[in-house]
Write a structure and sequence with these properties.
13 strands, 2 domains, homodimer, 11 helices, Nucleotidyltransferase, domain 5, five-stranded mixed sheet, alpha/beta
């Protein structure tokens, strides 16, 4: 315990869950990290109530654990789905939460009587891995979160890059097949339309047409192909299922094309991949790295590590705390 | 004339031509801009001779025009094809010039007795448009040079972005069709394999197969389809040729997919396109902008101008001068 230690609270708001916790300003450890359901259908006010209650709980628990006083808390970093207006602290629109032009930062700030900052959730996840996780020591880091969608964050020359209007980093919506699969965003051939969790499941269902009998996939989900998820596909591949293995190989190929693009564009030192899809581990990373090596320029390949995230549960919170620190204290 | 004015010399080294000139440190005007052939087949020593002679001529002419003394020249910025090692001033490899690990910066510097800096040619072209051309006033600028190849440069938060090992910005080698056309770089479906000058000509030749009789294209090149260039295609399209028009439309579609990717990744305020292919003007830019609008996120589209370069002959030299200034004087 250190009477002079100062703390920042972090909140990672998602469509399904809210995660919150605290860290000392030096990022040395996570304190009072916990999760609760978002229950977005209750409306923005109810979600703000829930977030404020979590922050109070995090502060109380941190005080109890460390002996700190309430004045030791500098503020709250918030990560939220976007697009956002960071300057104004406004969530412009989030289909998952059903919000439009919601002043999330100031709502939270006035409730908990602390300064707050707002940044994009995928940016925060990348910044978290950069500050305390798998991308530590890097300087040019591209982060991707592979889940229901594919989010991205860019750390360039040691700082989060936001672009002209705070919407940079939409890596999931880069075209890898210009006449390919329709994406939910309206574009064709987006990386997300191939390598997100639902896209992997969909490609598995397509692969099954005509040879259901030879694959164990449908049997694994009580005979209902609609229940196949990316996790089912990776599990079946692990058990040797030929159809599933082909889907896994193709996923690595699509992802490899997307990641190779990032290497040729950014020449990063680290690409960190997190999210549910990456739980496949080496079954994903090995063919992915091989595909990137086939596609990208050699000097870019040599300069870059492609690694799984090290903070699967807390990267978003850690990064929201880091974003607060970078914005308010000017450094990390 | 201003006795206190200081000057920087710029050199833009290409596989075919060398361009050189000078500017006052404030970038207010171009002085003594001229071009000579590279004649790379004479070897690196002969090319260095030719560059040194051009620099001497530029200095002499600038002194004559402005009344400046030789001590008014701060140094030489050099733009060269890459990949490079900027720190060491070495050209690692350039297939067009046939060089390997050539210490270009120091060779020039010792010959002309001035400090020198080295940066990638596409980076310099982008920086030139940012400092004095079509991207002036921007802060996040993506530059593309569409010619024999497709080069790219990234200006992020007001500075050239080089990546972890100086090879960032290879926009031409981003995959837009992961199972598509083979690219010279070894990858499949690179933007360059569709929208470089030679790729446009090649797609026109393919489009002609089976309907040569209905197109004016072959007649325009003395009956020898191998002589078709991108310029031929755009000229034929202007005259109403249906085959050529389809090739032009498709070029805009491919380029649009590539540029839309850049908008979703970077959220830039400006994309500036230069090089021979962009001489097509509105015939290229109008369908290109429409395609980008169809593909990219609306906030990214709204934030971004897509414009032709304003310094078709001198962007590389102006940018090499700007790169020298940014590296040696710390600002632009």
């Amino acid at each position: 315990m250190n009477a002079k230690e100062r703390y920042i609270v972090g909140v990672d708001l998602g469509g399904t869950n809210i995660v919150a916790g605290a860290m000392p300003v030096d990022g040395s450890r996570e304190i009072a990290m916990s999760t609760t359901q978002t229950l977005a259908e209750g409306g923005a006010g109810a979600v703000v109530d829930r977030i404020a209650a979590m922050i109070d709980k995090v502060i109380a628990q941190t005080m109890a654990e460390t002996g700190a006083s309430r004045s030791a808390f500098l503020g709250v970093g918030i990560g939220s789905p976007g697009p956002l207006n960071r300057d104004k602290g406004i969530v412009i629109i989030t289909p998952n939460l059903g919000w439009k032009n919601f002043p999330l930062r100031d709502e939270i700030s006035s409730r908990v009587k602390l300064e707050a900052t707002l940044d994009n959730d995928a940016n925060c996840a990348t910044l978290g891995e950069f500050w305390c996780g798998a991308a530590k020591g890097g300087r040019n880091v591209i982060g991707m979160t592979l889940g229901t969608g594919i989010g991205g964050g860019l750390i360039l020359d040691g700082k989060l890059f936001h672009g002209a209007s705070d919407v940079a980093g939409e890596i999931g919506h880069t075209t890898i097949d210009s006449t390919g699969r329709r994406c939910k965003c309206g574009n064709y051939g987006c990386l997300e339309a191939y390598a997100s969790g639902p896209a992997i499941a969909e490609r598995a269902r397509e692969a099954l047409r005509g040879d259901e009998g030879e694959s164990i996939l449908v049997g694994m989900v009580e005979g209902d192909a609609r229940k196949i998820t990316a996790a089912t596909v990776y599990e079946a591949a692990k058990r040797g299922d030929i159809t599933a293995r082909e889907v896994v190989r193709e996923t690595a190929r699509f992802l490899g094309a997307g990641v190779a693009n990032l290497l040729n564009i950014f020449n990063p030192d680290t690409v960190v991949l997190a999210g549910g899809v990456t739980q496949a581990g080496d079954a994903l990373f090995q063919p992915l790295r091989a595909e990137v090596k086939r596609r990208a320029f050699k000097p870019a390949v040599q300069a870059c590590r492609i690694v799984p995230g090290a903070l699967p549960l807390s990267a978003g919170v850690v990064g929201a705390i880091a974003a607060f620190k970078q914005q308010k204290l000017g450094e990390l």
